[in-house]
Amino acid sequence: MLSQTAEYALRAAVRLAELHPEGPIRVDDIAADLRVPRNYLSKILHSLVKAGVCASTRGPHGGFQLVRPPDQIRLVEVVGEFDPALVSSERACLLGREACSDEDPCAAHERWGGVRQRVTSFFEETTLDLLVRGGAALPAGN
Amino acid sequence: MLSQTAEYALRAAVRLAELHPEGPIRVDDIAADLRVPRNYLSKILHSLVKAGVCASTRGPHGGFQLVRPPDQIRLVEVVGEFDPALVSSERACLLGREACSDEDPCAAHERWGGVRQRVTSFFEETTLDLLVRGGAALPAGN
DNA sequence: CGTATTTATCATATAGACATGAGAAACACA
DNA sequence: TGTGTTTCTCATGTCTATATGATAAATACG
User: Which of residues 83-142 of B touch strand D (CB under 7 A)?
Assistant: First the structure.
């Protein structure tokens, strides 16, 4: 469901969350842990910096670290940077934007809208913290 | 959320359902209605034939038609041919197959599994008929 | 049988996702 | 200031999704 890139980003973010609040973590280390191409991950992490999720430090003892504690970073912040359509709350119709709209809804509009809403809410309400430590901090949702 | 191809397929299937049980409908007509590339749609419809959703007839008065009434064709049959991962009931973890498993689940396994289940169920329980005619034949689900 | 009609198939083109590699820029530290 | 470390950036390559165009095969009908 996630693109490869978004999945890499999420796994890297989880790794950063696990190690938070230790000092910067090198791309090399994360890439080795996750078995993800080093240079590719480097670009992805840089995107997360631009997205305001983590910060980077260059030079010796450099690397990446989260800018906020994991319980204050929502998955939408990570995933939305790479799969914007997936987490957007705009209710795209199943049959595409032109085929129907909220004004002139297709027959499955409401049913599909409900499913979409579940997906969107998951990414908006789930924090990195939950992926790392688990727990039932949020309403069950299923 | 659907790939372009799966969306074309679904829209074409809905069009066929609207016209069911009239005789074969030409690709040209469907493509014009849906504003979808003709030859591309031709290939997609051919895939639907292989998937057992519709049948094709060549030559004059030829075209495509559903092999069953729309209330007996589930969306999974149409979409699954093009986006198999989306409709698969295999519970892929959010973080990827290697990162966690049902045996050694990540902390969000259950939460994400529930969301995935909603999506899967939608495609398995919704029929083409519902997209065309609407109605509340199935349990609300949201 | 011949011809027009329509799908089936093949070859090719284009764009974006995914990935690799090299070198530039920033930084710590002696 | 010099050197090694690490991120940043650019150029390039590969693969798949998306699409286009031409030709082959099947069919209806006069």
Answer: none
